[in-house]
Amino acid sequence: MPMSSNAGSTMPSGSRVKRAAVVLHGRPEALGTGLMQLEAVAAREGVELVVAADESIAPGDVELAIVLGGDGTMLRALHRFLGTGVPVIGVNFGRVGFLSAIPKDDLDVGVERVFRGELEVVELATLEVETGGERFVAVNDAVVTSGELGRMVELEWSVGGEDFGRVPCDGLICSTPSGSTAYNLSNGGPVLMWALDAMALTFVAPHDLRARPFVVPRGLDLLVRNQTAAVDCAVLVDGHRVADCESGGQVSIRLGAERSLLGTLPEATFVRRYRQSFGSS
């Protein structure tokens, strides 16, 4: 499936799918007859499905990954197939489903179109997160927040080596364009359209009127230092606590070299999804 190397770019695959992986919602009861519908479409179109645990699907075994689930399942699949060249397309069986191109009621027609080559692939930026000698990759966002419930933290932050000062707050969100409509949006951060090669920085409940959201381009790293006495910070990557940053420690976040490959249909544009997901008239 030919794809452009530009972040946020969209390229049609133009080729029929022969073998696809299936990643399922964590709660099977949420799918109803969804899996049976998918299997019926695949049988009609001559597509072999691999329904298995993520770790049992080797890169190169499939041309496409189909998610039956919500945004959480989409994130899991995007992580699993990061760096493999396999795009991930979703049928929404969740609540918001912003990352999913196909509503569950349109499963039959939508998946048939994808199998017949109407798939388009959007390349999206990721984040590289480093702390305590460990490295993590975020598809949606990275958050540095208080490690103790109800305790404020003091975060010193700099961008591109230039100091912005110290902010008392509940935390700091760094999001990709695809993640800007998640935790970042709920905290008043900016929405980044997928074509942008940038990351959004948004403080959570800052006690400083100067702590405004920022949009940072590629090439400028964010450095966050925990300057809170006797309180550790938790480092969250796509909602999972991956590390703790002790008092005096630091977290480095930058736009990553890898791209997540989001499958879509031509009409399922960013603007259309935004309006459908968040209730714009």
Short synopsis of the structure:
This protein has 281 residues and is α+β, with helices and mostly antiparallel strands. The protein is built from 5 helices and 18 strands. It has 2 domains: 10-119 and 265-278, 3-Layer(aba) Sandwich (Rossmann fold); 126-257, Sandwich (Tumour Suppressor Smad4).
Number of structural units classed as domains: 2
Count all strands and give the number: 18
Distance between the ends: 35 Å
Order of helices and strands: EEHEEHEEHEEEEEEHEEEEEEH
CATH class designation of the largest domain: Mainly Beta
Strand residue percentage = 35-45%
Rg over C-alpha atoms, rounded to the nearest angstrom: 20 Å
Identify the overall geometry.
Answer: elongated
- Helix/strand-derived class? alpha+beta
Main sheet attributes: strand count, strand direction, barrel closure: 7 strands, antiparallel
Quickly count the helices.
5
The proportion of residues forming helix, as a percent range, comes to: 10-25%
What is the CATH-assigned architecture of the largest domain? Answer: Sandwich
- Give the CATH superfamily of the largest domain: Probable inorganic polyphosphate/atp-NAD kinase, domain 2
